[in-house]
Amino acid sequence: MSVRELVVLGTASQVPTRHRNHNGYLLRWDGEGILFDPGEGTQRQMLRAGVAAHDLNRICVTHFHGDHSLGLAGVIQRINLDRVPHEVTAHYPRSGQRFFDRLRYATAYRETVDLTEAPVDADGPQAVTPAWTLEARGLSHPVESYGYRITEPDGLRMLPERLAAHGIKGPDVGRIQREGALNGVSLDEVSEVRPGQRFAFVMDTRLCPGVHELAEGCDLLVIESTFLDEDEQLATDHGHLTAGQAARVAREAGVRHLVLTHFSQRYSDPEEFERQARAAGYAGELTVARDLMRVPVPKRR
Question: Which of 157, 184, 199, 299 has its CA 20 to 30 A from that of 64?
Fold first, then answer.
């Protein structure tokens, strides 16, 4: 059975707390597992969440601050220890190559896995498969940072009432899908476009064009909201977003399900992030992320 869900491994910014681990997010997308921003302690959180090294096909790092990348060493060694039988691809800003190299070879271990390095040089597609495209967009942070977006190609939805009106049924439904027309009836007359699903992952950044481009039309948007609105100047100074800013981005982009995460330790009431997001006018499904929670990708439109 196809599964599309986000497994939240950690939600803290800068330093972990008693209740929040450093960042870590696994996107299960059908048969693929994409690990985003493995901060310190990710390997332990994977164990607690029931995520195995064999579940990982790609690792996407937005930038090389420690809370987003210090877990790389353990994760990479774990996929080698467990002899993951498939290729694992790592995406990260090329400007941080020296940090990736240090983390990949932080200690001695036996390499058994084909780990492919695919550094990000610029905006645009980073991987293209028949099922989806992985894109990157530059963000605004004190160090080079990229957000990631997965886009599924649009498909077709057959319309039963139109099929029936034209007397098309049984094997002929498959035939018109394959051939594009049947007995003078075109496929367009009995179908409509079914939008492909879209997921975006936006971490440490100020407001910038890349944030809006990544969020546009997303079914599920995972976005940092390090600060509350009263600390907006602090957020801007340090290259971050507030809850209200993140929610306005989601509202303007037509996001269906918004996931807020990457919270500063200065705040003790997580419900305040939700209150401020709602006050900013976001009316869709909203989740304030907690460690080890699972968030399903909304069903297709």
Answer: 199
Nearest of 62, 90, 69, 73 to residue 14 by alpha carbon: 69
Q: Tell me whether residue 175 is exposed, middle or buried, using C-beta atoms within 10 angstroms of its C-beta: 0 to 12, 13 to 18, 19 or more.
A: middle
Please state whether 51 falls in left (phi above 0), alpha (psi between -120 and 50) or beta: beta
Q: Which residues are catalytic?
A: 67
End-to-end CA separation in angstroms for the chain: 19
> Side-chain half-sphere of 260: how many Cα atoms within 13 Å?
32
**pLDDT digit string (tens) for 18-47?**
999 999 999 999 999 999 999 999 999 999
Using one digit for the tens of pLDDT, what is the confidence trace for 179-235? Answer: 999 999 999 999 999 999 999 999 999 999 999 999 999 999 999 999 999 999 999
- DSSP secondary structure letter of residue 95: G
pTM above 0.90, yes or no: yes
Q: Residue 223 has what DSSP assignment?
A: E
